[in-house]
Design a protein that fits this description.
The structure is a homodimer of 226-residue chains. Chain A has 226 residues and is of the alpha/beta class. Chain A contains eleven helices and eleven strands. In chain A, the strands form two sheets. The first copy, chain A, has an eight-stranded mixed β-sheet, with helices on both faces. At the A-B interface, strand 7, strand 10, helix 10, helix 11 and strand 11 of A face strand 7, strand 10, helix 10, helix 11 and strand 11 of B. Strand 11 of chain A pairs antiparallel with strand 11 of chain B, so a sheet runs across the interface. Chains A, B: Keywords: Oxidoreductase.
Chain lengths: 226, 226
């Protein structure tokens, strides 16, 4: 598949590299490719600059959001939650129309320090905000409940014996995402229902963040024992 | 131990019966014992009236909230979240002072239908509200992330291979609760930290409710795979 991964941070890079390994044609979307490649500093999380990662993954293309989305069959939103609506607007409603939009973002608000709070919750979700802003996109929420490395390598934690959730209004789009998740190695995919169920998965972040503190590592995941 | 279980619903009855089995001296607290025993209708969840349960558990005492709390070494808040502050006020700050208060309640607001929303979240929690209202109580949040039957019989789900969380500001109180949880059969008790971490466990309810819908059963639990 031709896949656009919007976002050049850890989640975007991790997803893009895995999709490339799986044989997909991958374009990473960014606001300004020249500016992205010109940065030479590590980011706030200590990650090397994008140019370093790009040099290690020469087969991944880099393009403006709109260009990346336009040529893609499937679009991954790996931008930070606070910027997602703006970044998707730059991608362009026309370029998202009819396409599966896998939304991995979380509505985290770091303005009051750590742990972050959620800027939307309980009666609405970021996934639903995105769906309302881009009604012709086929939004599926998934993968937002674990750290990036576990998203694409479930076996890294407990031999892969844990769960991943999907929420969405379009059944065929959900099936496409479920197949993608299985190709990543996920074995327990739980379809929660329509996109409003993303309220539940986005509201997992507060305990996820506190578990990272209590366990001293981001390498864990939720399993729904049953 | 002498234990007061505040609340006559499913959670209160289930916890009280288990504590009795474990050899504790159990008093269930209610607003008006005569009125509680006089009810002959099933409740909104289809449970038989308290009097039926009482007849099956004659060794469990029933008393007013204040009387139950006054003679107890440990108090369990098994009242509905929306009523908890009022019920605990009836129990009396003096009767809670210095005692471990195991809070199982969830801040569910059913006024807008199902699924309920949370009436406090993200920047505060019901557990913290209770602690602020009763500063001399030693509040520990736990067990609120699973259905009542699983709280006291973890093996009912996946052979007991799942997790329970504790949050609290008083380390000795948390240890008392952890011992109690282990006596119930819990094997993976995760201490999340201070009482503010109850924001995380209370915010698990939205996905819990949606999982109950997707799985068609309340008999599941979260395991933190790691």
């Amino acid at each position: 598949m031709k896949i656009a991964v919007l976002g050049t941070g850890t989640v975007g890079r991790t997803i893009a590299a895995k999709l490339l390994d799986l044989g997909h044609e991958v374009t990473v979307g960014t606001r300004d490719p020249e500016a992205t490649l010109a940065r030479s500093e590590r980011d706030g999380m200590g990650n090397p600059p994008y140019s370093t990662w790009q040099a290690e993954h020469p087969a991944v293309a880099l393009a403006r959001f709109a260009e990346a989305a336009e040529q893609a069959d499937l679009v991954v939103n790996a931008t930070g939650g606070g910027a997602s609506l703006e970044m998707l607007a730059l991608a362009g409603a026309d370029n998202l129309a009819g396409k599966v939009l896998l939304d991995i973002s979380n509505p985290l608000d770091f303005s009051q320090g750590f742990p972050p709070t959620l800027f939307v919750k309980d009666t609405d979700s970021l996934a639903e905000q995105i769906q309302r802003a881009f009604p012709e996109a086929r939004v599926v929420k998934s993968l937002n409940t674990m750290t990036a490395a576990v998203m694409v390598d479930p076996a890294r934690v407990a031999g892969g014996d844990h769960s991943v959730f999907v929420s969405g209004n379009d059944e065929a789009a959900k099936q496409t995402v479920i197949e993608l998740l299985k190709s990543f190695g996920h074995t327990d995919v739980i379809d929660l229902g329509d996109l409003s169920t993303a309220r539940g998965t986005e509201m997992l972040l507060p305990i996820w963040l506190r578990l990272m503190g209590a366990l001293g590592t981001p390498y864990f995941n939720v399993k729904i024992a049953r």
